[in-house]
Amino acid sequence: MSTSAKTFPIWAFFSLLTNGILMLAVILLIWQQQRLSAFFGIITSPEPISLNNSPQIATPDLGRRHQLTYQQWVDILTQEAKVAADQRPPHLSILVGDSLSLWFPPELLPEGKNWLNQGISGETSNGLLKRLKIFDRTQPEVIFVMIGINDLIRGMSDGVILDNQRQIINYLRNKHPTAQIVVQSILPHGAESATWKGREKLLAIANNRIRELNQQLQSISAKKGVKYLDLCPLFTNKQGNLRREFTTDGLHLSPEGYIVWRSALQIYGEIELKPQR
Q1: For residue 66, what pLDDT is reported?
Q2: Any stretches that span the bilayer, and where are they (predicted)?
Q3: Could you give the CA distance from residue 140 to residue 138 in angstroms, rounded to a whole number?
Q4: Fewer Cβ atoms within 10 Å of its own Cβ: the N or the C terminal residue of the chain?
């Protein structure tokens, strides 16, 4: 868990400068999706408290993390959630999902908040549903959910995926009534350009199917009274596939991809999510 997002790195600023048109597109797309009539300034928050004084959690390095079992991941996230629950950091935001959320660089997360990352590599909607209780005692302002791509890879039907999503939303609304729940769209894959080791499994999933699944997910979110953030227009090319510059292997995101995601979260938070008093 990162105590708060660090200063935006210099290399990221240069990247943003050289991709100014892309960042403008991010702003325009988010603006259009939300149909907002006004753009509010950046929301400032008090200096976030530090969690560095809490007992240190033995977190494996990057190499060993790939070798952790699912239960080891759950144990680590349980410890991190306990720290957040005990210390009650202000302006807590939680990332919930699979490897896409898990590997979100802490230094790229939007500033002015404390972030608790509850992602697990290879996670499915069913697995996530069973472990949501891990952070029951935390008091987040916002919970960002992205889940579903691994369900598709494993051959799960759309009906099961959507039913699990409904249950996830219901659970979070019940356990965190004051938190704003933001369901994020399932990102497409790189199609023929994918180099991920499970490439054949990706190619068996039509990105059109993901798009239709997201449309139903958006409808469910509206009926349940939670937010929906459609990231797909920011990440797809003309063919509807994940853009090469935003991915490392057609499934996972590159640093450039995380910069776009960060920008979307930052802008969405400024114009759509109201801070809790």
Answers
A1: 56
A2: 12-31
A3: 6
A4: C
Gyration radius from the chain CA atoms: 18
3-state secondary structure the chain: CECCCCCCCHHHHHHHHHCHHHHHHHHHHHHHHHCCCCCCCCCCCCCCCCCCCCCCCCCCCHHHHCCCCHHHHHHHHHHHHHHHHHHCCCCEEEEEECHHHHCCCHHHCCCCCEEEEEECCCCCHHHHHHHHHHHCCCCCCEEEEECCHHHHHCCCCHHHHHHHHHHHHHHHHHHCCCCEEEEECCCCCCHHHCCCCCHHHHHCCCHHHHHHHHHHHHHHHHHHCCEEECCHHHHECCCCCECHHHECCCCCECHHHHHHHHHHHHHHHHHCCCCCC
* Better pLDDT: 21 or 153: 153
Task: Report residue 154 as tokens.
Answer: 């494993």
Predicted confidence band at 67 (pLDDT cuts at 50, 70, 90)? confident
Apex CA 261: angle with CA 47 and CA 60, to 5°?
70
Burial 83-109 (b: 16+ CB within 10 A, else e): bbbebebbbbbbbbbbbbbbbbbeebb
**β-pair partners for 119:** 97
Are 240 and 189 contacting, i.e. CB atoms less than 8 angstroms apart?
no
Mean pLDDT over each residue of the chain, to the nearest integer: 82
Q: Identify which has the larger pLDDT, 26 or 125.
A: 125
pLDDT band at 273 (very low <50, low <70, confident <90, very high): confident
Dihedral, CA atoms, 129, 95, 29, 42, nearest 10 degrees?
Answer: 140
